[in-house]
Design brief:
about 50% helix; binds ligand C2E; 12 helices; single chain; 9 strands; alpha/beta; eight-stranded mixed barrel; about 280 residues; binds calcium ion
């Protein structure tokens, strides 16, 4: 609509239209991005705090748009969800991540799991079949794949979640609860989910060395996780002080800029070779 004089000023919200238009343009670009091969994965190492070894790499999608540059997943994953493109994009991520991990294994890197984030829609659509097919196609052993789902995805339909997670666990795939602590899963529900790992949300890790309450929360999550025989990983670890605290409360693992930012596939290869001293 064109501007029809200043009387319409209240009705006309240019900044909203601009946002809507941007989303539309972005959705249109997103639609073409798969065929144009504009997505790539970066990988962030996850460290076992006891052994000091890299046990997993989290695959994080990046969109290299020819004009817009690097678009953050926080900008386009929600859009991909809304438009339904997440199905195809999510499957691309699974394929690419499993293929890469298989390639690293064949190249002789120490075995690590590859962790893939699943979105809500993806989780609702027969994800275990897709995962079984991708594993068969790529030849990756299921125990080297980990899926990350958030608490809110898991809590949406608890019985359905248990059913899907059980299928995945029966296949031998690892399962992590992402952003743990930000959702509202009850302890009674949590114990019904077949899980391996709790990933403590970054917002709790941030202030553990300055905020007594956040420190108490992390301590309790570690105790809770261990009580349920789960692995507990802290994400977003940025300082040596945070790391020290996590050691002290016997957190099992960590991921964060302190150890490494998300890396390109080539950088991972180099990083791992340095780590293992070859
Ligand atoms: P997430 O799953 O919680 O991933 C962790 C995010 O924290 C990543 O942001 C990572 O780069 C960032 N991060 C890691 N260490 C630190 C740190 O020490 N400090 C700070 N400040 N940040 C840190 P990224 O890559 O921008 O991804 C954002 C979100 O986008 C992810 O959050 C995840 O929800 C979503 N996402 C990324 N890749 C995929 C994907 O392939 N599929 C789906 N469905 N979602 C994805
Ligand atoms: Ca994640
Ligand atoms: Ca997370």
């Amino acid at each position: 609509a064109k501007q029809q004089g200043k009387d319409n000023f209240q009705l006309y919200a240019p900044e909203m239209n601009k946002k809507a238009l941007e989303q539309l343009v972005l959705a249109n670009h997103l639609y073409k991005a798969l065929n144009r091969d504009e997505f790539l994965l970066h990988y962030q190492p996850q460290l076992n705090l006891k052994t000091g070894q890299i046990v997993a790499l989290e695959a994080l999608i990046r969109w290299q748009h020819p004009e817009l540059g690097l678009v953050s997943p926080n900008q386009f994953i929600p859009l991909a969800e809304e438009t339904g493109l997440i199905g195809a994009i999510g499957e691309w991520v699974l394929q690419a991540a499993c293929t890469q991990n298989r390639a690293w294994q064949l190249a002789g890197l120490p075995p690590m799991r590859i962790a893939v984030n699943l979105s809500a829609r993806q989780f609702q659509q027969k994800i275990s079949k897709t995962i079984a097919r991708v594993l068969a196609e790529t030849g990756l052993d299921p125990s080297y794949l980990e899926v990350e789902i958030t608490e809110s995805i898991a809590m949406h339909d608890v019985n359905f979640t248990i059913c899907v997670l059980q299928e995945l666990q029966d296949m031998g795939v690892y399962i992590a609860m992402d952003d743990f602590g930000t959702g509202y899963s009850s302890l009674a529900t949590l114990r019904r989910f077949p899980l391996h790992t709790l990933k403590v949300a970054r917002e709790f890790v941030n202030d553990i060395t300055t905020d007594q309450k956040d420190a108490a929360i992390i301590k309790s999550i570690v105790a809770l996780g261990h009580g349920l025989e789960l692995n507990v990983i802290a994400e977003g670890v940025e300082t040596p002080e945070q790391l020290k605290f996590l050691h002290a409360v016997k957190c099992d693992g960590m991921q964060g800029y302190l150890f490494s930012k998300p890396l390109s596939a080539n950088a991972v290869t180099q990083f791992c070779q340095q780590q293992s001293g070859s």
